[in-house]
């Protein structure tokens, strides 16, 4: 099977889209990041944090903003590109040369599909890691506290009585590893019997393994009995990585990828309300990136209509904001429905895309008949 050949028309249409798309991506990213940019100066002045740390935390905070801005940039980019081509009668000239309207628009629609998958990949692969790094910098360097505050601390009962508390500086690899681990065991009276320091704790085969552990054991009077070093030490911390991820993200599934959300849902430890929230976000995280294609599809006929009404760049930007506003109102409405009726959560998550795809396809068909 041979791949479709990229023609001069395809390259020309994509080049027309590239400039407005980059403009839209920069504009929307700057709008959403404006608060964080102002926050850099405030953080440095109030906490006396290093400027490089504030800037690095800001940069790690950009991927979630970019994921949100890409669909909007595709909408604005397509609107502006179509406005220019239609306003200068280039589309009319192409049609006069025997090229159908749908063939002219095909490269833009394919670009919308590609942008959807790129956005999905960024959301699932890059955003959770970026949020994790940003939180570590903000807490350990800027705020000078343990990363995620107490969210990484785990308490568990011990067989025969007593308890165990584990403290961690940060987590990595979706909390499959804990960094800077301190484990304290207490007897029934609450006195410490053993303290273990380790560089990291790694979860594998349903158990935690401490690396480079240093163990201190105490008598009942509190004096040290023995001190020993061991390369590895298997322990039961009382929680799995999925439990820690949930707390480290402050019970916010938006800070997780779909795999993390699915693991927490399947753990069976969510309350009824949390189960509704996690299930709906799990479905929405698959549907949202494909707003790139939906916005591209709906932008084509509206771009031509705007030019016929005497539109321009300012009208294109305003129209893009209006479409995005209406889209997210519809998405919010169906999000509430999906949480209320989990049986149709997947359908509710996709309904905004379905509705706007139908509207865009109908208008595209009408524009092709002209």
CATH architecture of the domain at 149-243: Sandwich
* Structure class: alpha+beta
In the CATH hierarchy, the third-tier topology of the domain at 149-243 is known as lipopolysaccharide transport protein A fold
Share of residues in helices: 55-70%
- Tally of helical runs: 11
Poorly predicted tracts of residues: 145-150
Structural summary, described in words:
The chain is α+β, with helices and mostly antiparallel strands and 370 residues long. The chain has a domain at 149-243: lipopolysaccharide transport protein A fold. 62% of the residues lie in helices and 16% in strands. It is built from eleven helices and six strands. A six-stranded antiparallel sheet has the order 1-2-3-4-5-6. Strand 1 (154-157) and strand 2 (163-172) form a beta hairpin. Helix 3 (62-87) packs across helix 10 (313-340) and helix 8 (272-287) packs parallel to helix 11. The protein is elongated, with a radius of gyration of 27 Å. The two termini are 35 Å apart.
Keywords for this entry:
six-stranded antiparallel beta sheet, alpha+beta, 11 helices, about 375 residues
